[in-house]
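Kindly inspect the following:
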Amino acid sequence: MKVLVIGSGGREHALAWALKNSPAVEELYCAPGNAGIAEVAQCVSIEVSELDKLADFAQENKIDLTVVGPEAPLCAGVVDVFRARGLTVFGPDKQAAMLEGSKDFAKEFMIKYGIPTAKGCACTDAASAREYIKKEFAAGAKGIVVKADGLAAGKGVLVALSEAEAVAFSDQCFDGEFGSAGAKVVIEEMLTGEEASIFALCDGKSIVALAPSQDHKRIFDNDAGPNTGGMGAYSPAPVVNDIVSKRIEEKVLKPFLKGVQAENLHFRGVIFVGLMIENDEPKVLEFNVRFGDPETQPVMRRFVGDLADVLYKTATCDLANARIAWRDEPAVSVVIASAGYPGKYEKGKVISGLDKAAATGAVVFHAGTAFKDGAIVSAGGRVLGVSALGKDIADAIANAYKGVAEISFDGAYYRKDIGAKALKKR
């Protein structure tokens, strides 16, 4: 099998790493890839936004399966372009990708199919948003969540604890802070509890949950500071116990599949469900239509089997016959970021210690790296994800940080408490 992965981040490196271990894969490509992905796949200089060029490459090189990593090309219709040429591709088409591309679309879908979620309102102008926010705080809300409707690279969301804060962020959205993504704003009640991430493969006929994980979104320890794309993750997530798993299946995944079928959505990929769990009851925070980053890293460390076969079966409506298994050992991934992230940061910092980190037993997934003058340098806000297994969660945390300690570059920053919530639940 010839496989193409689209993307250039830590998620794509984790997928490429797992695909490289597949006995079915003879040739593996990644467009555009990064310095780490280049160690397991042949990188191709095509950007994720160049949909026709990607399809041309797949056609010319007789690619058997294309796996789309990021949300942007999915929402732009890359699957539609590939399907029009008879190419097999893992991911939802443009219409189905609206489940991530529009938070309002996703909210209406959840309500229609009885999927538990926060109550909320979509506003198309600043005045109506201010009015709704004022009404909610007057009614006793202790906080409110304001979201830019469209894609904003994980940064178009604010959990506001005051009316002034909520209004200011809403105004930012309408003033163009997030471009067209903020032309509409979704305002929701603030849910409480503990967050978890569920990936579920869906081929339109079946839906299968993968191992649960938990992300750490805030930049600083103890979940302080602004949101990021994710500063680390671990799998499994103890908050997703057997009771919660069953409720997620019955209350979220089955209704999701019912909705996909009823709306005739072409969904042959993965639905990433962001959940808030309180008293063993799950509520959906958001849908994403691709694997999460960094959650994919610990999930792939624990995956057992032939990933290429599983993804191919999903893309060709044969998911019911896929074999999926997991290691018992937990996995932890710690993100190393550039100084200043998630704000302005510098690139081009020479990275050292990658070989030493690998010698500890950790796998280093590259998120934002490049080659420069024969060296590997930083090329993004989130630079690396150091992922390790362990006999228990404490051991996995220790092993991941052993790997982290071997890596250095100017301005490198990482959280020191990845996995702490899991330790409390032992």
